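Go through this pair.

…
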Amino acid sequence: MTGRAQALRALARRSGAAGLPGRALVIVAAVTAAGSGSLGLFAFYGSDDWSTLALLMAAALITEWLNVPGDEDPLDAAGAQAFSFSSGIHIAAVVLVGPFAAGFVAVFALLVADLLRRESPVKIAFNASVFALASVAAGGAFVAAGGTVGSIALPDDLVALAALWLAYTTVNTLLVSILVSTITHVPLTLLLDQKLRSEFASAAGEAGVGLSFALFVQMNGWGTVFLIPLVFGVYQARARLAQLRIETARSLETFANVVDERDPSTHRHSERVAVSVRELAVALDLPTTSILTLRWAARLHDLGKISVDSSILMKPGRLADEEWKSMRRHPRLSARLLRRFRFAAPHTRAVEYHHERFDGRGYYAVPPEAIPMEAYFIAVADSFDAMVSDRPYRSGLPEETALAEIERGAGTQFHPLVARAFVALKRGLDPKDVLSPEELRSLAEPFTSQHDLDLRSIASAVRNSRLWVLVVTIAASLAALASGRAPVILSALATLAVVLAALIAERFRTLSLARQLAAQSSAGSGADSPLSLLRAALAAAARPTWAALVEWDPQRLEGRVVSEVGTAGNRASEERIVSWLLRDADDGAGLLRREGDELDGAWLALRLASPAAVEQFAVFAFAHTPARWLEAALLRARTDIADMLLPPGAAPVPPVGPAGSGRRAPVLESRPQEG
């Protein structure tokens, strides 16, 4: 069991059967009726092998009871999933005793386990019926694909077993997703996409264990004893992982509370902001994964204030220049801290930009098109809570006055659609009644597009897995030799030769380009700038559209472009480059990569040997993803490139201004609503 029942548990806790909408009740009734009918057929088409049936019932009950529950307040969608091997036993039952008997096994185990857990009768009936229908569909697919109930003949039955698993998983996932989509109004296709991404590997693993169980039963029932340590070991590993997720979440919440409590006026501030953001996301019917990430981004958006002196946080008057610099760094430090957590890493820009404005006049003057939609959600909730709360420099505003301020700031300080939806929600209205369908789609599109198939990520994964390809090819060649079939052996060896030739060619190109870069460094720049020569030297692999030497101060979280060459239209703003370095430079990698997000095209940043605390990066922009061997050559020639670009012993020019813009930050005459 992966996430198939977790969503239903949450729905049952939230509304109960009486609270389900009419269409959802119809779906529950229809599925329950169909499942009961299929279960009734067990009396006519059941199995006569009662010993195998009893063994399967025992295994199904143990695996149904021995599950890892999902977290009530998970960090991400994966943490919300429950886990057990019960579905694997259902699949084994389909093979060994047929679909109707398998449905009986599944329903028996679930009824006993869920009744002991005192689960909702409606949820028990629906889940039991889903299991029964999935088992019947799996049995039909198995037989239709050439399988025979009661026996497994490998490798002849591989196609039939694959059809069985696909049918079981499809029916199980589809029925649950239809009900969840009906209740939450999240598009069915989006739910199916989320489940495919988050549960596919677990479902395949369950099926593998289940089919292994079936093979052991077929050979000798006592062989199943050897699966017990495997199942228990995996269960323990998943339980420890779930506990680690919970402890991480609680630790981060404690950290956020400590930051809030440094200033009595912001006590529980981030918690209130997170509640407001989550309520808005739910009201707009955003995907479940987006609701989770928005809630956590809002909960942790002010972690960077840990570096701001408490005297600044509680100062009743205007902040001086240096005090503002300290205050304005906190969003970037928050993003830097969260970058270390895998679940939060994709959403650090939302945290970093939560003090940006829709008119581009925020902390870092980021243009609105570069600000992720999540940041606008946090910004409006953060400002609202700041306005209605008492602060050292002013008293809190009445709620209606604060909402009027947000309405006045719509289109300038706040995203206009987010502001209208937020104000409507706080006034007790449904945002879906206030915004037009086109406006609602405009708000939801950035969140739904996050789940689209990213071909660039797939291509990058393929490029990065070339050594895996070699290992798999070698293993396949050895397996082909074991088969003793000449055509298979020749095909495997030919594939291995092609893979080896490609890797050797890549290595040759890497060494050739590295030598060329080293020779260029030794020859000097002459009349051309070193950056121009470096850009020209890279043209054979993938000519950069823009190249620059960038200084980055990791302590002050500031940076600036020192020199640059290339097409002006391909130059990203300093703010976007600094934002990228902020998130990735702490990794310590010699070469940083970025595609998409706020930077158009493909970008590389080569960390150079720096003579001072301020780090130096050679940054390159490409229209298309550069070859992997070019990246390897840059790393190999890193010292030579540093000699070419950096004057010997020269001290870097320290960046100035809040974001390395080349000018000092002004003393602000008024203090904005500071969350």
Q: What stands out?
A: The chain has a mean pLDDT of 81. Residues 134 and 168 are 5 Å apart (CA to CA).
